[in-house]
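Bumping my old thread because nobody answered last time. Still need a sequence for this structure:
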């Protein structure tokens, strides 16, 4: 399953993801991963969550980030859910250019039974068509 929280900055996307991640970590027997581009949220996440600051790794662009996600999933078969906060900030690309990225994430999700939750900042009225199927 792939879900996207798409909306303007300040609409509560990160707060919702934090709540969902902490709840899943408390209830799940699988591993929960949270990826962000700063350490700011680290103190708000359960110690059971594997936190990754993407800036600690030389990952540039959506293709490299997809490869990074493949590496994360392939190294731990117990990963149940991956949260990605601020996708367009992480890959330094606009949402319209991420169609192949979403195809790849969807494939990883189906083949390896990993759920993805992502937040993207943008105008809800201009959400790209290929992202609409994932939007919550």
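Sorry it took so long. Here it is:
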């Amino acid at each position: 399953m792939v879900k996207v929280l798409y909306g303007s900055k300040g609409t509560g996307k990160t707060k919702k993801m934090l709540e969902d991640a902490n709840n899943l970590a408390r209830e799940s027997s699988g591993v929960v991963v949270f990826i962000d581009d700063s350490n700011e949220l680290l103190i708000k996440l359960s110690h059971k969550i594997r936190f990754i600051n993407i800036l600690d790794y030389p990952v540039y662009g959506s293709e490299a980030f997809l490869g990074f996600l493949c590496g994360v999933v392939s190294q731990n078969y117990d990963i149940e859910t991956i949260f990605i906060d601020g996708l367009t900030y992480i890959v330094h690309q606009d949402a319209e250019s991420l169609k192949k990225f979403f195809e790849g994430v969807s494939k990883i999700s189906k083949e390896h039974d990993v759920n993805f939750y992502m937040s993207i900042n943008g105008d809800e009225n201009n959400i790209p068509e290929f992202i609409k199927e994932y939007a919550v």
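The chain has a mean pLDDT of 95. Let me know if any region looks off to you.
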